[in-house]
Design brief:
725 residues; alpha+beta; five-stranded mixed sheet; 21 helices
Amino acid sequence: MAILHCNWLLKNQNGCLFIWGETWRSPRVNFESNGSENIPVHPLAMTSVELSEWLRSQNMAITNFIQKPQVAFAPGVGGAIATTGRSRKAASAPEISLPMHSQIIALPTYIPESSDEGTTAIFPVHSASLGENTDFPQYLQPWRVEGFCLNPSEAVKFLAAIPLNAAKGEDAFLGGDLRFWSQVARWSLDLISRCKFLPTIDRQSDGAFAAKWRVLLDSAVDGTRLERFSGNIPLVCRTYQEGLETGEDFSQSLLYVDFPTEPQELLLGFLNSTIDAQVREMMGSQPPIEAKAIASLPSGVRQWLPALTSASHIVNADAIEVERLEAALKAWTMPLQYQLTLKSLFRTCFQLRSPESGETDWTLAYFLQAADNPEFLVDAATIWNNPVERLVYENRTIDQPQETFLRGLGVASRLYPAIAPSFETEYPQSSRITPIQAYEFIKAVAWRLEDSGLGVILPPSLANREGWANRLGLKITAETPKTKQGRLGLQSLLNFQWQLAIGGQTISKAEFDKLVALNSPLVEINGEWVELRPQDIKTAQTFFTTRKDQMALSLEDALRFSTGDTQVIEKLPVVSFEASGALQELIGALSNNQAIAPLPTPTGFKGQLRPYQERGAAWLSFLERWGLGACLADDMGLGKTIQFIAFLLHLKEQDALENPTLLVCPTSVLGNWEREVNKFAPNLKILQYHGDKRPKGKAFLEAVKSSAGIRSDISDCVDGDTSRK
């Protein structure tokens, strides 16, 4: 068993993703505590060669992600490892080699009491064993591991190739750190799809200027995500030690552990580097700007624009031109400067409240909301009553509460002018809006406020703005006919009842008419507010006046509705479907929510079915009862023939065989079927129907009757070859 790990390292301007592997073997290392400066090699860590081979076995060869692999004629030259397989090629053939990287990581370690003077046996904890109780105390100990470093573009491709199901089940091989960065990588794709990035120009440590793309986390959703990712980052992601790599001097004690970076710094470093790499690749495929347009731009801009799309980030412009460009970019991004500082621990929030009893107007109340905890709210009255630089509220400190609050109100007023009248008061705390304005707020304004870094709280019944569960539609309850004899099929009609429902609650025709008479897009039903769409009203009215009494529901319809697929009846969505009785049993079995009882071995069966064969025969019996087809997909040799023979005997015992059973199979297995039937079910009579001289027409019917003894209660297994008629 192996576990794959990775972490983002802030080693240079762009950073890299360091990958290493962990396996099971003896973890013991004899550590000399006499002042030796050699950091021990992690005994559970794979070597670079082992890691490369293991990734290849998982169909994730590291060479698939490196853009420009090195070419070498001798393996191992220049700190590289050869990955050409077990057989060595001719010396003249070039081999793809991978740059090896050595990294120091502080990891949990068992350090029992020393048994020998000056020497201690230490044991690094395997990541799969973390959290288990042990008699030995655990400490953070620096260890040396080998692995590979991927640049930002390569890192995105690698993390995107990680299968989502690899973290579950017996075949799980992802460490918690790799799962974490895989999720952050998917967040970066989401940010790019929403154009959450800005072009910038940065001063490098060597004095040069570089054009880069920078992540823009200006929405309330992204701000909350950043806080949550920062709070949930695995500790191991922060214990990668800087200044301890191969060939570097380190004067501190080997037991010294440094926490070099804060979680948010790591996350922003990853997002900025990977988004910059991905945007460059996308922009590089775009047609170049026309020469005339480029010529009309200032020289600094002419150097900056190509640097945003080329492999080189460097802007070759004089300092004065760069200063002008920086000033222009700062003025352009001025409305976003507060979000760009990433210090917005609190934001202005708007809570939509339903009308009080006897009133029609809605209320939009103002608050400050914590970015990392949407339930932490400070009402406007508290903010105005405390004109301080720092407000301590419920054990949390809010810097410049009034300035933060007013800044959010100003942004919201530009996006939703309906709240502007409330600012005429000296200390605005809320605003009153009409039902139409409240509906507009839910449908078109709320998401814009959130996308601009503001918080929004809607009534629970209105918070889910998508999905059919909150729409006006039909609630269906169905069951199989109680008086119908024989088996059902997909087109068999069911007994069912329908009710009009909205927001999970049923309403009568009279209640529906009252809601329509209100002429409001937001209506209250049993204390909950729901949306009543004009198009749904028209559809329901048409439904009531036309074909509501001509509706029919088949078994096939019921199976479709039970899967949750979007389905409609007379253009009205089925927002709820409930089954009872035998129909519930069928739906439960087909959706894997209910197990089918194994079929006991029939009395006429000469032998004993294995447990999985009992389940297979039971599956055939269950589906036959409903007139549905079945497929036995057991591997060869596991007894599909036996299961079918047992199934036929079961039908015979249940008096469910009204006609002979036709079995169509290849000619090569005719003899095998006949032997199996004679061996396990000798009381089943067989007629083999094969060959040029086989009877046809009336002669065939007579042969069948003769073989069966003209008794309808005897099953006939008729083998045939359909290649000839």
